[in-house]
């Protein structure tokens, strides 16, 4: 799979995401929303945005690996949070967790929502990956 980062000079420089990613020679994988729940459907880090973010990334990684890829194959990530201000306040520790899973940023969007399916969820991640066709 070939991947080209697209960040036009005519747009503001991206911080914590890329404006676009052009992909060829791969299979599209749709990633369902993943929250901070473990295999027992229990939120692993109640009241801890960073802990739930890490579990959600771990869940996404599991799906992508099952399809023959890695988290670096994720090209679009939507981040849904219960509290935007809490997310912004924790950008540094969230970035440290993110760096453990990704070599480069995918395209991203952040949304603040008022409720999740699981009452104690603080974050949910969903998106798209393009995995090697031969995986």
What characteristics describe this protein?
135 residues; alpha+beta; 60s Ribosomal Protein L30, Chain: A; four-stranded mixed β-sheet; two-stranded antiparallel ribbon; 3 helices; 32% strand
Polypeptide structure, described:
The protein has 135 residues and is α+β, with helices and mostly antiparallel strands. It has one domain (2-132): 60s Ribosomal Protein L30, Chain: A (2-Layer Sandwich), CATH 3.30.1330.40. 26% of the residues lie in helices and 32% in strands. The protein contains three helices and six strands. Strands 3-6-4-5 form a four-stranded mixed β-sheet. α1 (49-66) runs parallel beside α3. The chain is globular. It starts with a strand and ends with a strand.
Structure summary:
This protein is of the alpha+beta class.
């Amino acid at each position: 799979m070939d991947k080209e980062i697209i960040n036009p000079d005519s747009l503001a420089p991206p911080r914590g995401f890329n404006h676009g990613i052009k992909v060829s020679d791969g299979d599209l994988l749709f990633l369902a929303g993943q929250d901070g729940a473990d295999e027992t459907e229990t939120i692993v880090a109640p009241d801890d945005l960073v802990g739930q973010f890490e579990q959600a990334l771990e869940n996404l990684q599991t799906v992508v690996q099952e399809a023959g890829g890695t988290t670096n194959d994720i090209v679009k990530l939507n981040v849904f949070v219960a509290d935007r201000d809490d997310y912004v306040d924790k950008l540094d520790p969230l970035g440290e967790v993110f760096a453990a899973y990704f070599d480069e940023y995918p395209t991203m969007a952040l949304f603040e929502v008022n409720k999740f399916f699981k009452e104690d969820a603080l974050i949910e991640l969903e998106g798209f990956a393009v995995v090697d066709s031969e995986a």
